[in-house]
Amino acid sequence: MPTIAYQSFNANSSSTHGLASISNQTFTRNTNAHATGQGHQALVLPHYSSDLTTPVQGPAHLRPVESLSGPPTVTTFGAQVSLAFQNFYRSLGAMPDIIVVGELDTSHPDFTGMVGGPGISTTAHPAKKACQSFSAISQNAVASGISLLQDGEGYVVYAVGDLTVVFVHVPNRIATNASETVKFYLNIAGSLNGKSKAIDLIIGDTNQPSFNFSAQVLNQAFGTNAYVNASSQADIVRFDSWNVPAGGTNSVGTKVYDIAVYRSDINTLRQGPVYISQSSGAVTVTDHCGLAVTIERK
User: pTM surpassing 0.90?
Assistant: First the structure.
């Protein structure tokens, strides 16, 4: 019963994929201005970026989200990933089998040692632009059940046990156009070349214009009504936040871009989605909430 997660950073369109490409970008600054202006606070768990998969005991510390000042360090971004593991463990009872981080290319030397541990494997999926890249982080203990199936612009596909999981960053130029988004998902299915009978889970940054848009276009693409949102409502509660009103996953909490959609006729959603904020360590590093689900084949 795998736990599958996604966290996006906020990168620019540079062909150089280093730290500068994800540091204090416009939407990250907007997110921070909103969080600090609203007095948001983070419940910061103990964690070790150098040992992602070991649960760390101890209470969360309540800290106000800090105003951004100066360039962030690689450690700051590593903390967001590390805290995702700890928060998902506490909320779901399991560390992610795999988490894909969007808009991050860990093959760049700037990110050497950003996260790790003896039980972790990291695979970069660089693209032409920093904002189109992905990096997958998986547990070695379940490595035999995780394999790359395909990647391309806006997506990377992994087999996770008997599930086919599509991690997405749907390109902005098509994300609000139903017919183009249908083509996007059909092209992904076609790229698998018979490696899978069905896409079980889509998770990531959809840039969708409305809450049920992604489920609707997936059902249209594959001639079914089985794809459903893992979330039952558009309001998002962040597990790692204190006294933060429910809202969306974008900079100002009004749009649910980061979602999970699963095929309900052949899969059972066991837990989630659980969301974490853009400021898990009380420092804003992105404009996207992270999320995780636990799902299995029926």
Answer: yes
